[in-house]
Amino acid sequence: MVTHVSRMVGTVPDQLERPGGEVFSVTLSCPTLEVEVWSLGATLVGVTAKSAGASVPLVARLADLAEYDDPARNHFVGCTMGRWCRMITDGQFEIDGNRYDLRRDRRGRHAHGGPAGFHAQRWDLRVDDSRPSSRAAVFTLASPDGHQGYPGAVEAQVEYRLSDDGVLTVDYRGVTSAPTLFGLANHVYWRVDDEPIDAHELLLPAGRRLEIVDDVPSPDSPVPVAGTESDFRTRRVLGTQAVDAYFVLDGPSRACELAVPHRGIALTLSTTASGVGVYTGDHDPVARRGICLEFGGWPGAERRADFPSPVLRPGEVYEEGWELRVTGR
Fold first, then answer.
1. Dist. CA 226–CA 150, nearest whole Å
2. Could you give the 3-state DSSP secondary structure of residue 232?
């Protein structure tokens, strides 16, 4: 049976386009897995495997709320990124002939939804215990028309659901009042306990990737991975390889794996998304703290008609998600 514990973590101050206030936590627990989520950024703060009295953390986490709310120290750790989760180098896009200028960071880019994007917002939080075999923390956010430069008022939802048998399912949902860019992704850094990520083995069922230069896909993208260091179709040790790329997933299950064989633990992450951004954090304030698997929309899709469209329109419902299973606890 899944149980939950709720608490207030603390408060955050007002910021430009982000009202301050209280931040809450929910911890979901079953016999084999524990999951902690916070209302700041609808953030996945902790995932812990449990077995025979031992606990093994599976994600990197920051020290406290102040660090999570400090962009100088927090490179989107564990958060939900949106309204559009990818980079837009020039901070501009067009829909139906209308051009929109988005908020930019100190480097002049629009990154992961903007400086006050979904990752920086305080989401409303409730617990859904209506199902007999699972329990969920459900986050909702009302993003007004014009927020960070995006058109349309958006209603977004992120649901973290833990089942009795230790499966974590994360579902995203969104609707809009006007055509807008929309696509959510989580920026959790996976890492088994204190093992360096060099010791992790990675499997990606992806025969193609986007070749990206200055955050823009090359004209010939996607390109084959065969014969390159980006080929992870057979599970292999990461070593010192730096990865910051977007992979087009193959097959119906689209199941990626991270494993540390000498610890006997493997993580299988399946998704409904058609691609995944993989980032080993080499450019973060703390380098290589974990491995990000960012399931979601294609980088550059706002300028490429041949990519899956990132435009959400009134009357449509955005639905995407991913699932975690842990074996060998």
1. 38
2. coil
Tens digit of each residue's pLDDT (9 = 90 or more) over 280-289? 999 998 999 9
Helix (H, G, I), strand (E, B) or coil at 198: helix
Q: 157: which 2 tokens?
A: 């939802």
What's the CA gap between 66 and 31, in Å, rounded? Answer: 31
The reported pLDDT for the residue numbered 106 is: 84
Q: Is the pTM of this model over 0.85?
A: yes
The answer to whether 286 and 154 are in contact (CB under 8 A) is no
Residues 6+ apart with CB under 8 A from 284: 75
Q: Is 311 exposed, middle or buried (0-12, 13-18, 19+ CB in 10 A)?
A: middle
Nearest to 166 by CA among 135, 123, 126, 187: 135
What are the two backbone dihedrals, phi and then psi, of residue 221, each rounded to the nearest 5 degrees? -70, 145
Residue type, 109: R
* Residue showing tokens 């980079």: 87
* pLDDT for position 30: 97
Q: Residue 299: what residue type?
A: P
SS3 state at 273: coil
Question: What confidence score (pLDDT) does residue 104 get?
Answer: 94
User: CA-CA distance, 272 to 255, in Å (whole number)?
Assistant: 10
Q: How far apart are CA 278 and CA 292, in angstroms?
A: 5
